[in-house]
Structures are given as C-alpha cells and as structure tokens.
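In response to reviewer comment 3 from the previous cycle, which asked for concrete evidence that the modeling workflow produces usable outputs, we include below a single protein chain processed end to end. The sequence was submitted unchanged, and the resulting structure tokens are shown without manual editing.
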Amino acid sequence: MNRIKQILIRNRPADIISILFVSFLLFITLFFYSVLPKPKYLISLYTILLIIQFILIKIRKNNRILNFIYNLGFPSVCILLVFDSLEWIVHYVNPKDIDPLLIKLDYLLFGNHPTVMLERFMNPLLTDILQVAYSTYYFIPIGLGIILLMKKNEENFNKSLFLILLCFYLSYLGYILFPALGPRFYLKELQTVELQGYLIAEPLINLLNRLEGIKRDAFPSGHTGITILVLYLSWKYSRRFFWIALPVVSALIFATVYCRYHYVVDVIAGFILFIITIVIGEWYYKWWSKKI
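The workflow returned the following structure tokens.
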C-alpha cells in the first residue's frame, strides 16, 4: 500500500488517471479476448500508449519539445486513440443498447421526440452553424490548454488537464456501462426532414461519421460534460477565453440534440458527468496537493 501511495504522490494526477484507464482497458481486452474482433490490435495499442506515457514521464524534463508533447500532444492523441478503440470494445462487452429506455425518458419529459419536435425550426443556415459548433468540441479543450501553457502557470494547467482527462475517461466508462447509439440511428425512420445545410453541414457530418465510425457513445453526452467543464475552468483561469467559448459551447450543447447525435437525457447526464468530475477531481487533487 505504501508503494502505491508513493507512486500516486510522485506522479501528477493527469498521468495517473491516463495510466489507470488505459490499464483498465487493457485488462478488459484480456478478459474478453475471445469475443473481441481485434484483441491483438487493442493489446498492442494500449501497451504502446502505456510505454510512451512512462517514457515521457522519465525523459521530458528540460526539453521544451518533449514537455509540449508530454503536456498537450500526447494526452490529446491518447484521448482520440482510446475513443477510437471503443468501437472494438463496447458492443462486444455489453451488447444491449439502452436507446429504448432513453427514448422513453425523452418522450416522458416532452410528450414527443425532441429531435422530431425540432424539425419545425430547421433551417440550412442554422444547421451549418450548429454543425460547426458541434465540431468545435475537438478543439475547445486544446484551446484552453494552449492558453494555460502560454500563461506558464503549471499548477493551473496540470489541474485543468487532470480534470479534463478524468471527464473524458468517465464518459468513456459510461459508454461501456450504458451503450447507446443515439437518435440519428434509432429514430431515423421517425424523422420527416433531413438535416441539410448550405455548404458546411453535410461535409462535416460525413467527415465525423468516417472519423468516429459507429460507436455506442451517446450516453452520457461527453460533448456536454467536457465543454461545460472547459467553461468552468476558463472562468477560473482565463476569463477572456470563457467569454469567447461561452456562445460556442451554448450552440454546441443545443446542436447535440438538433443535429440528432444525442437525446435530451444524454445532455442532462452530461451535466451530471461534469458535477461528478468536479467532485471526484477536486477531492483527489486537493489530497494530492497536500501530500507532495
């Protein structure tokens, strides 16, 4: 126990949470080896990610390029690769989608399907704007990270990185426990109006479909949880970025339902994800700060 405690204290929380979650996925892969379609690929991927993480921890000091990779480059790549790998895990580990339950909850709340109700407000220009806003999800956390690195406040950056990674990994855990495809698949036959923009929406939708594939990643809404968390951290550490991000994040959250990626209950779960991240993350970071 003392050895484990020393490891937890010696390494920053962002590194610990990545090592723990990737190790968890490696264990899942080994345990369900016989039912997964690409177990060797997954084992290789997770092992390589762990090795790179350990190497960067050891050699990044006093090297500006390695420090940038360690602080921002590798965590970003790790998040994307882990997310991509879930396509080969979630449905095979937990094959029962919870979409029927989520659809019932939405209907109970609104007396109709929200994505169908929103058809009356659909407009090609609005669709273009909201699809762009939805796609900024991949850049908003990185934008905050770059700003905090430029401010050279290591503590604020490390804490923000830890909380963002924790939120990502908790959302990924949610996908494994509660697999859901989302309304764009389950409610497709009920939609009477196609999502159409002028120039931007369709290419972006096709690009995201190619990049993300078909994943059970609707519940909870990571787009909601992560972007609300970024707003929270921006309010604390970079008010200018907060005011820039606020309208984009507001449009993004509305776009999750308008663009048919999420049910409303997914968005509500995204807010709960944010709260859980803050409660757990702040507690652990405070404990860690007192021990170092």
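The chain is about 75% helix and 0% strand. We consider this sufficient to address the reviewer's concern, and the full set will be provided in the supplementary archive.
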